[in-house]
Amino acid sequence: MSLIITDECINCDVCEPECPNEAIYPGELIYEIEPAKCTECVGHFDEPQCQVVCPVDCIPLDPNHKETEEELMEKYLTLTGQL
Description:
Elements (H helix, E strand, L loop, with lengths): L23 E3 L4 E3 L15 H5 L15 H11 L4
Antiparallel strand pairs: 1-2
Protein name: YfhL family 4Fe-4S dicluster ferredoxin
Keywords: 4Fe-4S, Iron, Iron-sulfur, Metal-binding
Pfam families: Fer4 (PF00037)
């Protein structure tokens, strides 16, 4: 699954620079995640870095974008030009 930022986001700016896929961007009110770019850091790190640094714990899995570990790895390979 990709991740999603909930409306509990306080716009602290710490998640955006941590995303290796540049999937996080400033939305109209809060930061948002582009599901097509989010790999939950699969291929880069052992855990999603945005979740690690988020001070308010507002980045859960997005139930509308379910993906397996294999699908996330394939997305990573595509995004990094290895596929």
